[in-house]
Amino acid sequence: MSAETPVASGNPLAVEVNGQRFVISGMFVKTASLEKEYQEDVVNPEETMRVLRSAFPKIDILKFWQRVPDSEPKFNYYKEWRQIAALQFSTYKFWWEKQNNRNARRMVKWAREQGVVVSEVPFTDDLVRGMMEIFNQSPIRRGKPMRHYGKSFETVKEEMGVDLAKSIFVAAHYQNELIGIFKFMLFDRYALITIILDKTAHRDKAPMNAMISKVVEICIERKAPYLIYNLWRSGSYRQFQQSNGFVNMPVPEYYVPLTFKGRLALLMRLHKGIKGLLPDKVYVWLLGFRAKWYTWRYGSVIGSVRSETNCERSPSEPVVRNP
Q: What pTM did the predictor assign?
């Protein structure tokens, strides 16, 4: 395919340049970013910008970032910092004794004492059914609709089976019941967590800590130098990340204007939309309000699910603000 003409690739809000697929987001300011931004780098930013300027629909900003561990800025474009939660490996013993804190070690031991069995598992129909039970615990997660809630078996199997060649599944079982699922993918520079969920009714058995321990073991065996937990979180999520050895690893994220509107958006700090202008306190308040609204909207469904599963209410989850 010629680099001269970006080609729509099935989705009217996506174009392809030099074999790389860029998705387009934004209502008023159109921003293009790599669809597989965790798997690959923009091959040639200058050439990519030249080609994207002729794309349709009109693209105002190109956004891309340097992947872990490439933290030193390479380009002179306008940049901000993406806060990545990363765990760097040497040996399992070093992680267990030096990076993993005392409480996390205690939780892993507690899970074993409770009879939780954690293992790498194949992607099977039984695993999909178990995942559906976890997804269907509640229609609300993190104060917004759980995107996998209520989906059909065929849909869940298709979505969870994406990139199977790069994917590894780790499951936590208690008395033959799936109580936790962990999916991660092996790329050229690191392993990336894509799903980490547990059953609220069995959270007291610490399946999350037990699965992290197993994933670290697998990553070291497969010689993955880092495990990426997406973004550096806040509140109890950050505590969980820190207790398991993750650290904040900022990497440069570039916003390159391609049009006058793109330059104006950067000048007015609108490149992240209206929410990028909101003070943190206002943003947190709005997310809290949204969580209360969804809880009210789905209250009857949540109550029904809890009654059927005999689950206690899960602890409130922290507000997460993406960069």
A: 0.81
